[in-house]
Design goal:
2 domains; binds ligand BES; binds zinc ion; alpha/beta; Aminopeptidase; binds manganese (II) ion
Length: about 500
């Protein structure tokens, strides 16, 4: 795919399949209004008649006139302009671009409405990133195993951004290069998350990490079963006991900063399939548990992008990967295992496996000298009940690191709502027989997941992101969120490293 900026001249002078302009609830955006004359007032007429309403994600395609170089004009609805942020702009362009692909309009000219940079989007580079990544991630295809694929729409292969004023053009090329890299990373996470567990086992996830990092400045280390035994990683090994597939601890390092500088650890849950283990899940919907390595995929792809951007700081990605299966050797409720840092865990519910493997992930990150930890996991169904698919949950022990993550999310088009870690929640994980138990009952189930993981952060500044709702949007009632895997929060993690390096 090619992405370029053409700043000189009007958007109407650039050829392509479709010139994409915007509308808001009941009003045309600046570029659409400017184009209306060349369209003999057609857009205004359609707005008056109600054919264009400017609703979020609505796409209206009209034939271009001779005064317009592109073949079609596509009006993309952004809804209420006062509530726009990078997340909403990103999603609107994804929803619009999916419709354009289905209409076989794949060479796109995106007209920039610079006034949108003054909304919660923040600035012009953030606006361009949201528009361009949002557009490109519409290329995600789920049906990679179809033998004779007549149905899938052609890919968007050319994007030109147009209509940025001369004086505003500084930094635009950089923003577009960032947008392409972030889109490629997002597409990779989407692909891995939607891949079935028999073609993406822990071993194959580790090979993917190696392939991805080959020829880059990154170092990859994969700790196999024997290595995990030697390291005392009883938590990851315990969950892996029920599966015939060997586990792997995948470690990817970017040494971009000073030798003795801070080390940001990104720890991602890498459960390549979560059957629940002996505490087995119901059959209905269990196939979605192939995506339970979404946190791990985001971490691996983020570290790759961080290296590609040559971000001047030290980052380590740690992904404890295994299946969670109910084989004959599986952990049974009540079993006690010992994590790498010596903490004993009573496994009351084998379906609360994510926090258990993360225990060893965090312990390893600390052993490697992490100074800050961010963990990312599709951890609880409860977070979907609380926040749906439009926001992930964030829990933290450090307001400074939280601020950085939230700023990264704002600039990268993600959403995190902070949940409290009041001391009252601590008691739910007390065990009679071990240091902690892995299940705290049905109440505050997302928070008790955070409370458990915090025990392994060793007092370091730590942020926990529960992405069970945002990594994959099932046909939900929230129509403004594109369906399928989102790739979240890979863009936030990349941006976090950038902000971290400047902090
Ligand atoms: N992988 C699941 C969480 C999940 C649910 C992710 C739905 C994506 C969509 C996790 O391992 C799990 O099973 N969590 C349990 C925790 C409980 C036993 C404390 C849950 O949410 O029911
Ligand atoms: Zn799980
Ligand atoms: Mn589970």
């Amino acid at each position: 795919m090619s992405v370029a900026m053409r700043g000189d001249g009007a958007p109407s002078e650039i050829g392509g399949d479709a010139l994409v302009v915007t509308a808001f609830s009941g009003e045309l955006g600046a570029a659409a209004a400017a184009l209306d004359r060349a369209l003999d007032g057609e857009l205004t007429a359609m707005l008056t008649s109600g054919e264009i309403r400017g609703r979020f994600g609505e796409l209206t395609v009209v034939r271009a006139t001779a005064a317009i170089a592109a073949r079609r004009v596509a009006v993309l609805g952004l809804g209420d302009r006062t509530v726009l942020d990078s997340y909403r702009v990103h999603n609107a362009y994804t929803l619009g671009a999916r419709q354009l692909r289905r209409r076989r309009l794949t060479r796109l000219v995106l007209a920039v409405d610079a006034t949108l940079a003054e909304t919660a989007v923040g600035d012009l580079p953030a606006l361009l990133r949201a528009m361009v990544t949002g557009t490109l991630v519409a290329n995600h295809e789920a049906g990679v195993f179809k033998t004779d694929d007549q149905e899938s729409a052609p890919l968007i292969d050319d994007v030109v951004v147009a209509g940025v004023d001369g004086d505003a053009r500084d930094g635009v090329d950089g923003a577009l290069a960032d947008a392409v890299l972030l889109a490629e990373s997002t597409l990779r996470v989407q692909r891995w998350v939607s891949e079935p567990s028999n073609s993406l086992t822990p071993t194959l996830l580790a090979s993917r990490a190696k392939e991805l990092c080959a020829g880059t400045s990154l170092t990859v280390e994969v700790i196999d079963r024997a290595g995990l035994e030697a390291a005392g990683a009883g938590a990851l090994l315990g969950i892996a006991q029920g599966s015939d597939e060997p586990p792997a601890m995948i470690v990817v390092r970017h040494d971009g900063g000073a030798h003795d500088g801070p080390l940001l650890a990104l720890v991602g849950k890498g459960i390549t399939f979560d059957s629940g283990g002996i505490s087995i899940k119901p059959a209905l919907g269990m196939e979605t548990m192939k995506g339970d390595m979404g946190g791990g995929a985001a971490v691996l792809c983020a570290v790759h992008a961080i290296a590609a951007l040559e971000v001047p700081c030290n980052v380590v990605g740690v992904v404890p990967a295994t299946e969670n299966m109910p084989g004959g050797g599986a952990l049974k409720p009540g079993d006690v295992i010992r994590a790498m840092d010596g903490t004993t865990i009573e496994v009351v519910n084998t379906d609360a496996e994510g926090r258990v493997v993360l225990a060893d992930g965090l312990a390893l990150a600390r052993r490697m000298g992490a100074t800050h930890i961010v963990d990312v996991a599709t951890l609880t169904g409860a977070v979907i009940i609380a926040l749906g698919h439009a926001s992930a949950a964030l829990m933290s022990t450090d307001s400074g690191l939280t601020r950085l993550v939230q700023r990264a999310a704002r600039e990268a088009g993600d959403r995190f709502a902070e949940l409290p870690l009041h001391p009252e929640y601590d008691s739910c994980l007390r065990s009679e027989v071990a240091d902690v138990r892995n299940w705290g009952g049905r109440e505050a189930a997302t928070i008790s997941g955070g409370v458990f993981i915090r025990a392994f952060a060793g007092g370091l500044p730590w942020v926990h992101l529960d992405i069970a709702g945002t990594a994959w949007n099932e046909q939900s009632s929230l129509k403004d969120v594109p369906s399928g895997p989102s790739g979240a929060p890979v863009r936030t993690l990349v941006w976090l490293a950038r902000l971290f390096s400047r902090d």
